């Protein structure tokens, strides 16, 4: 007698293998997205530290960071760094990954979107927070620029 079909145990094992495989793939995707967010935060910190050091090393020129608005004019989607103002030399233009924005509501970046690093190591305004929003997880990560010799770091 020829038997056709699958046993209940074979079906359960197949479903279990599929579920385990999908959970491993999902875990890998979440870790990859976390790496991109960590990289984005690190890039912003590095760029702000570089702007600060350029201002200090120039001894006469301010370095200005102009945060650029997204297409809806609600939040910032990147920034441009200039030495000597917006008519000065462009040092860097950076756009964030489409999954991230710099929140205008949570950040304390001035309304005009400009942060100035001064040759004496200070910042104008005296302190501010750059709040990066992850659209996938609905979470914020904050970077602070503080008064004094301008410490730049992520606050967890």
From TrEMBL:
Q: Which Pfam families match?
A: N_methyl
TM ranges: 6-27
Task: Identify the domain of life.
Answer: Bacteria
- Keywords of the record: Membrane, Transmembrane, Transmembrane helix
Q: What is this protein called?
A: Prepilin-type N-terminal cleavage/methylation domain-containing protein
């Amino acid at each position: 007698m020829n038997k056709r079909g699958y046993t209940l145990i074979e079906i359960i094992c197949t479903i279990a293998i599929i579920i385990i495989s999908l959970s491993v793939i999902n875990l890998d995707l979440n870790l990859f997205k976390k790496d991109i967010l960590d990289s984005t935060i690190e890039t912003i910190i590095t760029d702000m530290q570089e702007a600060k050091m350029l201002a200090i090393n120039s001894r006469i020129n301010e370095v200005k960071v102009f945060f650029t608005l997204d297409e809806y004019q609600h939040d910032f989607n990147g920034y441009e760094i200039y030495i000597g103002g917006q008519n000065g030399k462009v040092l860097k233009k950076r756009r964030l990954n489409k999954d991230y924005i710099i929140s205008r509501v949570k950040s304390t970046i001035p309304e005009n979107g400009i942060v100035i690093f001064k040759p004496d190591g200070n910042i104008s305004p005296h302190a501010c927070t750059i709040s990066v929003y992850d659209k996938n997880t609905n979470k914020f990560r904050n970077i602070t620029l503080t008064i004094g010799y301008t410490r730049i770091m992520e606050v967890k």
